[in-house]
């Protein structure tokens, strides 16, 4: 790596904000001998541009000895972030490669078939005559030979050990704050009817402890291997059988990895097992702090690493979570350039939103949202609901209060479509979202205000969370929630001249700020220090709807006047 050329590799014609100083600090960190540099850069810092400059410091073929690795990877856990990179003209030399399911086959009669179900994977001994023109294999070949290959973190981890995407000189991970949690998610093993087609042929015991889980996985792997052999003996497979074969092969690899890691006395990974309903119920095997998994899938993939995020809150805790030595890691802090008065926090707390208090608190939050809607009659708003249960209950309350004409929701399957429709709409609609605290760019009039309905603490019913709290890791618990809050606050203010208000409706959020104060970045603490109670209009649903056209209101009134059975041929339009 050649850090000295980092400024020359910066892709924009000029700097904005603190980018020039950030590049100098990153260069100094690498030149001090650190192999890993954490870059804590808030919203609007241009992290992708910084990432490109760092990747450009990688050795090239002309600078390397034959035994030395060259070039760079850019990776991010967020698909939307990769999409933004692919569309940015300043980043056109980042060569994007995606998974097979994102490409369609080009053979006659197969143009609607994704490559991961094409004849080359369905038919034994199939010889594709146009493989050199296949969109997936073509993109893969190009990316493998380009100076900077860009991909999602999932694809990056899946290609560990491949001949195509081997070790490179520099690896840049954008939005890296959740790297440990992403690794835990990818390494989690789900044993259920959804992952095991022959589930009904398995006598699932009541698993009490990891030793019993190991014995059970040996039986599952044996059955999976037998089923894969049956599929391999077929001359041609259906698309569903291809998916089954690939899923079972992945499962076999994961089970083998689990048993190998569990029996390794030197492994730092702790495994936990869940089986909520006992005998014959699904089983989930989860890793905690999967250092060995990250070593294979990430740390063995490069010589030098840059990890960028707004919310790497504690260097030592982050390093411990992902298996890094803090002595070999530098933290570069990039200052915030957005005026603090443009990103105000407002206290509209109505009580606790814990499960036992939710039914009492949520109606008051709904009434407060109506008042906030009246405060912003002509501006779009975003409600962070935290869960689909809260979303559904809140939607019903807002309907009952008479403001449903301005409210949009989404389900798990239609998230992207509903979000795109809301962003395209000219109406000041309010979007009730679930798990959209990250990777959402709502610059300008796309959204001017948002509400956080619930403090986003990790679910204590998750065995990994429970285990950490049993080990007294409360600092991790509060940092995780704070990280999500900071990410959420960055959705509606995306540029120095942008502005947007964030309303805090759960009193537990105020408690969180006190408990996690020592882990707050200075720029976010400045927002918290200015926290105030807004002077909202009275509860007036008609005022909350005043920014809508009369036609929109009438359509909603008609839909509410029907019997509500959902069987009318225009119900999907009216609703």
From TrEMBL:
Q: Identify the residues that the record assigns to the ATP-dependent helicase C-terminal domain, covering every copy.
A: 388-511
> Would you indicate the residue range of the signal peptide?
none
Please give the residue ranges the record annotates as the region Disordered. Answer: 535-575
| A GO BP annotation | nucleobase-containing compound metabolic process
Q: Which UniProt keywords apply?
A: ATP-binding, DNA-binding, Helicase, Hydrolase, Nucleotide-binding
Record's superkingdom?
Answer: Archaea
Q: Which GO terms describe its molecular function?
A: ATP binding; DNA binding; DNA helicase activity; hydrolase activity, acting on acid anhydrides, in phosphorus-containing anhydrides
Fetch the InterPro entries from UniProt. ATP-dep_Helicase_C, DinG/Rad3-like, P-loop_NTPase, RAD3-like_helicase_DEAD
Name used for this protein in its record? ATP-dependent DNA helicase
Which lineage?
Answer: Archaea, Methanobacteriati, Methanobacteriota, Stenosarchaea group, Halobacteria
């Amino acid at each position: 790596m050649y850090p000295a050329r980092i400024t020359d590799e910066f892709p924009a014609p000029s700097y904005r904000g603190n980018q020039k100083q950030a590049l100098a600090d990153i260069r100094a960190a690498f030149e001090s001998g650190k192999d890993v540099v954490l870059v804590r850069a808030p919203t609007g810092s241009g992290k992708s541009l910084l990432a490109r400059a760092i990747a450009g410091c990688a050795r090239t073929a002309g600078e390397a000895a034959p035994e030395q690795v060259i070039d760079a990877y850019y990776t991010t856990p967020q698909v939307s972030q990769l999409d933004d990179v692919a569309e940015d003209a300043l980043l056109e030399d980042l060569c994007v490669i995606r998974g097979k399911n994102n490409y369609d086959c080009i053979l006659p009669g197969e143009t609607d078939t994704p490559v991961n179900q094409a004849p080359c994977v369905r038919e034994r001994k199939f010889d594709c005559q146009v493989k050199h023109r296949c969109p997936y294999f073509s993109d893969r070949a190009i990316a493998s030979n380009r100076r900077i290959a860009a991909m999602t973190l999932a694809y990056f981890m899946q290609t560990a050990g491949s001949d195509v995407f081997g070790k490179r000189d520099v690896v840049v991970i954008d939005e890296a704050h959740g790297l440990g949690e992403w690794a835990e998610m990818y390494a989690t093993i789900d044993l259920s009817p959804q992952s095991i087609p022959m589930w009904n042929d398995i006598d699932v015991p009541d698993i009490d402890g990891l030793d019993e889980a190991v014995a059970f996985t040996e039986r599952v792997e044996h059955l999976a291997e037998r089923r894969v052999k049956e599929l391999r003996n077929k001359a041609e497979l259906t698309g569903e059988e291809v998916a089954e074969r690939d899923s079972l092969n992945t499962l076999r690899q994961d089970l083998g990895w689990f048993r190998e890691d569990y029996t390794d006395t030197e492994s730092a990974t702790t495994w936990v097992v869940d089986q909520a309903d006992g005998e014959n119920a699904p089983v989930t095997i989860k890793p905690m702090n999967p250092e060995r998994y990250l070593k294979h899938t990430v740390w063995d993939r490069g010589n030098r690493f840059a990890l960028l995020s707004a919310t790497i809150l504690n260097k030592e805790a982050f390093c411990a979570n992902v298996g890094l030595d803090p002595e070999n890691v530098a933290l570069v802090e990039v200052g915030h350039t957005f005026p603090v008065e443009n990103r105000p926090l407002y206290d509209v707390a109505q009580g606790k939103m814990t499960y036992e208090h939710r039914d009492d608190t949520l109606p008051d939050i709904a009434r407060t949202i109506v008042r906030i809607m009246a405060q912003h009659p002509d501006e779009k708003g975003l409600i962070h609901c935290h869960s689909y249960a809260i979303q559904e209950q809140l939607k019903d309350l807002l309907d009952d209060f008479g403001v449903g004409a301005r409210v949009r929701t989404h389900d798990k399957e239609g998230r992207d479509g509903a979000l795109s429709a809301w962003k395209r709409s000219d109406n000041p609609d309010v979007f009730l979202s679930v798990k959209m605290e990250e990777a959402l760019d709502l610059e300008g009039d796309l959204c001017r205000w948002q509400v956080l309905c619930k403090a986003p603490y990790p679910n204590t019913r998750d065995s990994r969370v429970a285990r950490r709290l049993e080990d007294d890791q409360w600092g991790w618990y509060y940092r995780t929630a704070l990280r999500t809050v900071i990410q959420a606050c960055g959705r509606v203010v995306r540029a120095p001249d942008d502005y947007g208000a964030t309303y805090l409706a759960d009193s537990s959020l105020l408690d969180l700020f006190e408990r996690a104060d020592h882990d707050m970045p200075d720029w976010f603490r400045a927002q918290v220090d200015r926290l105030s109670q807004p002077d909202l209009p009275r509860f007036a649903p008609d005022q909350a709807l005043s920014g809508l056209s009369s036609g929109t209101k009438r359509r909603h009134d008609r839909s509410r006047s029907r019997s509500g059975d959902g069987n009318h041929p225009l119900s999907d339009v009216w609703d």
